[in-house]
Design brief:
Blueprint lengths: L2 H20 L13 E3 L6 E3 L9 E9 L5 E5 L1 H11 L2 E10 L2
Antiparallel strand pairs: 1-2, 3-4, 3-5
Length: 101
């Protein structure tokens, strides 16, 4: 075969491969500086790479101070209030602990 007869099929094959490859792109590259964009198909806004880790929440902890002395610590507010309702005494904030998001 001559070079001119091979050129047309090669050109068609190259153009076809180019069009097929361009439709496989994940998005158009219009990411914001944080790597976030809106998906045109679903309308969902999402980020590919978070720039900062999610902050951990600080949760206050309480001590159940019993009538007549003594205390037990490490309770959340609701649990401490339930102990006060059942056994008397009062709740006193004792500090903070890292909570789960």
């Amino acid at each position: 075969m001559s070079k001119s007869k091979l050129f047309a099929p090669a050109l068609l094959l190259s153009l076809g491969a180019t069009f097929l490859a361009s439709s496989a792109l994940s998005h158009t590259g219009t990411d914001k500086s944080q790597g976030c964009h809106t998906d045109r198909k679903t309308g969902e806004y999402h980020c590919h790479t978070p720039t900062t880790p999610e902050p951990e929440l600080l949760t206050p902890t309480y001590c159940h101070v019993m009538v007549g002395g003594g205390s037990r610590c490490g309770y959340e507010r609701n649990a401490c209030n339930q102990l006060v309702s059942r056994f008397g005494g009062f709740c006193q904030q004792s500090g903070f602990t890292f909570g789960v998001r």
